[in-house]
C-alpha cells in the first residue's frame, strides 16, 4: 500500500484505472477506509475510463493516527454540541480537506472530480469551496451542510452509532457488533446480503481498527459546525444524492445541501438508507457519468 506525506501527515492511498482519464477522488465517511468503497463502484468508474484515487482519512485505515490527542468523551461532546458550546477537537474537517488537497499535490494531479460519502461528503464540500481550481465537480452523497436546526439521527441510529464495541471483543463479536450498526442505518429497500456485509466488515477489521479515531472524527464533525456559507461559494457542477430512508443523516439534510449550492442537481432515492448497497451501484454510476464526462458549465457564486 503506497503512503505519501502530505499536509504534515502520512496518507495511505491507492490509484487504479486509466491514468489519462478524468481523475476521480473518492473520500470515505466516518471511521471508514479506502477499502470501504464497494469494489463494484470502483470497477464501474474504471470501466468508464476514469483514474480513481482512494485514500484513508486521517485517524483511519493506514494513515496517521492522532492517538496522542486522547479519546474524547462522546456523550459530553454531544451535549455540548446540542447547546452550542465550543468543542475541543484534535483537528477539523477543513484539515481533512487539506489532506485531500495535499494528496492531489503529491500525485501531481491538477484537478479532480470529488466524490464524498457522509463525513466524506462534508470534506468534499469544503474541498470544492476552498479549492475551486482543483475541483472539476462535486458529488455529495448522504451528507449534510451541518446547519443548526436540521433533523438529527433517529434514536435507534444514534444509539447504534454511539454504542462502543464490547471491551476485549474477539473478531467474531466485533463483526457482529458492526454488522448490527449497519443493519440499523442501512437501506431498508435494498438490504445488503449478510455474507457481503460481514465480509466487508472483516476486511476492514483485519486491515485496521481504530475506535479512538472514530471518536475524534465524530468530534471533528461537530466542532466544524455549519458549512452553509461555504456551500454558497461552490462554483463547480454539483450533484447531491441522498436516501429517502436515511436514519442517520435524514433526507432533509441532503435537500438542504442541494439548496445551498447554486445549480446543484438533487437525486433522492426511495428505499436508500445510510450505505452504498450493491443494488444501487449502477444507479450511482449513471448519475455520476454526466458530471464526469459532459461539458457542464460551472455556475456563478450564489448571491
From TrEMBL:
PANTHER family the UniProt entry points to: AB HYDROLASE-1 DOMAIN-CONTAINING PROTEIN (PTHR43433:SF5), HYDROLASE, ALPHA/BETA FOLD FAMILY PROTEIN (PTHR43433)
GO molecular function: triacylglycerol lipase activity
Protein name: Alpha/beta fold hydrolase
UniProt KW keywords: Hydrolase
Annotated Pfam families: Abhydrolase_1 (PF00561)
Residue intervals of the AB hydrolase-1 domain: 22-275
Taxonomic source organism: Pseudoduganella rivuli
A biological process from GO: glycerolipid catabolic process
Transmembrane segments annotated in the record for this chain: none
Gene3D superfamilies: alpha/beta hydrolase (3.40.50.1820)
